[in-house]
Amino acid sequence: MPMETAAAISCLLMGNVLERFPRLKFCFAHGGGSFPWTLGRIQHGYDVRPDLCATRCQKPPKDFVGRFFTDSLVHDPLALQFLVRVIGEDRVILGTDYPFPLGELEPGRLIQSMDWAPPLKEKLLWENGLEFLGLDSSLFK
């Protein structure tokens, strides 16, 4: 699943989908799969082999980071720290993997366990999800 998710993100970027449809929203499961960890290599391919990688897009892949969301379901504190650093604290949403059996037994537990200030935890636990859905947080207070 991580490779397939990374391939899907790369196809959107290299296929110029986000540039052509800027209001379209995406959230990718599995913390964006292997995409955050291979972004440097994807960018390098765009830079040095545009004939293979950049056939339909005019903007580098790194320019699109922040234009899509990922979930937080990575099962590892170091991986979650890296994900938030690469994708951005405003673009990571609580992931559960429900109804599949590979999710957290207690959704949000990893986020809660992180040594982060409450405002960042709140972003990941619910605020970013509301942003993705276009919902006003005042409806839930």
Automatic annotation (TrEMBL):
Catalyzed reactions per annotation: 2-amino-3-carboxymuconate 6-semialdehyde + H(+) = 2-aminomuconate 6-semialdehyde + CO2
An MF annotation (GO) of this entry: hydrolase activity
Pathway given in the UniProt record: Secondary metabolite metabolism; quinolate metabolism
A Gene Ontology biological process term: secondary metabolic process
Keywords attached to this entry: Decarboxylase, Lyase, Metal-binding, Zinc
EC identifiers of the protein: 4.1.1.45
Pfam families registered for this protein in UniProt: Amidohydro_2 (PF04909)
GO cellular component, one term: cytosol
Domain Amidohydrolase-related residue range list: 3-135
InterPro entries: ACMSD, Amidohydro-rel, Metal_Hydrolase
Biological function: Converts alpha-amino-beta-carboxymuconate-epsilon-semialdehyde (ACMS) to alpha-aminomuconate semialdehyde (AMS).
Subunit and interaction comment: Monomer.
UniProt cross-references to PANTHER family, sorted A to Z: 2-AMINO-3-CARBOXYLMUCONATE-6-SEMIALDEHYDE DECARBOXYLASE, 2-AMINO-3-CARBOXYMUCONATE-6-SEMIALDEHYDE DECARBOXYLASE
Family under the similarity heading: Belongs to the metallo-dependent hydrolases superfamily. ACMSD family.
The protein, known as: 2-amino-3-carboxymuconate-6-semialdehyde decarboxylase
Taxonomic classification: Eukaryota, Metazoa, Ecdysozoa, Arthropoda, Crustacea
